[in-house]
Amino acid sequence: MSDITDKFELPVQEVSAACEALLFASGESLSLGKLAEILNMDKQIISDAMDKLILEYSNDPWGGLLIRKIEDSYVMCTKPGMKKVLERFFSPKAKPPLSQASYETLAVIAYNQPVTRAQVEAVRGVSSDSIIARLLDRGWICESGTLDAPGRPSLFSTTEQFLLEFGIESVDELPSMELMSYKTIRDLEESLDKAAGNDDRQISIESYMSAEKESEEQ
Fold first, then answer.
1. Cβ contact 82:89 at 8 Å
2. Under a CB-based contact definition with an 8 Å cutoff, are residues 34 and 45 in contact?
3. Which terminal Cβ of the chain has fewer Cβ within 10 Å, N or C?
4. Quick one: three-class SS letters along 129-167?
């Protein structure tokens, strides 16, 4: 049961500012329903306010932030162009690049989710245990339930982090083509680029490759 009082009232003209403040303070995505609950406001009013905020942030040439819609949730994040600045601040250790097999496995899950480990392996024809573990560690997939079958095998689905980092609002925006038609990692990246409108991805597959190469040279 929610502990948020229904007596709370917010002037309609303050809804956008309130949503902005909540996203900033949260540091993670908030669903439309959660925002409506906190502000004791109709979902349509919240949705209209968020559409306005998304447009304002997107059209601000001097700002370093964006508000992104991820399925039925919203998240405040940095613009892709701020990547190099943030790397200087955080000085992150380069993540090892994922293999082509990893991206093939990710594609199998993304297009067929929820899917079991056995189903993934049936498509790929090889064991995928270690690859699935790496994708779980990366935060791009998660266990989303169990199949109602003997042994209750785990089901895997993509995450909000996957959508955010690859710059798409939902899996419905993935290109409609057979998964295994991606013959190279570049094919998958270009396909996701197209779905995202080219500019919204928070990461680049090439960046992983470059980071690994630089790490080896040091």
1. no
2. no
3. N
4. HHHHHHHHHHCCEEEEEECCCCCCCEEEEECHHHHHHHC
What's the whole-number mean pLDDT along residues 3-29? 85
Alpha carbon distance, N-terminus to C-terminus of the chain: 55
Q: What is the mean pLDDT of the chain?
A: 79
Choose among 9, 40, 33, 35: nearest CA to 24.
Answer: 35
Q: Which CATH code fits 100-217? A: 1.10.10.10
Q: Is 117 exposed, middle or buried (0-12, 13-18, 19+ CB in 10 A)?
A: middle
pLDDT at 194: 55
Lowest mean per-residue pLDDT among 11-25, 82-96, 118-132, 140-154:
82-96
Q: Residue 189 is encoded by which pair of tokens?
A: 């990246």
The per-residue pLDDT for range 155-197, each reduced to its tens digit, is: 999 998 888 888 888 888 877 654 444 444 455 555 555 545 5
The angle formed by the CA atoms of residues 188, 190 and 193, to the nearest 5 degrees, is 110
What class, spelled out in words, does domain 12-87 have in CATH?
Answer: mainly alpha
CA distance 62 to 18: 22
Any residues with CB less than 8 A from the CB of 162 and at least 6 apart, and which?
106, 110, 139, 140, 141
Domains 12-87 and 100-217 equal at CATH topology level: yes
Query: Does 50 score more than 90 pLDDT?
Result: yes
Retrieve residue 12's tokens.
């309609």
Kindly report the pTM of this predicted structure: 0.56
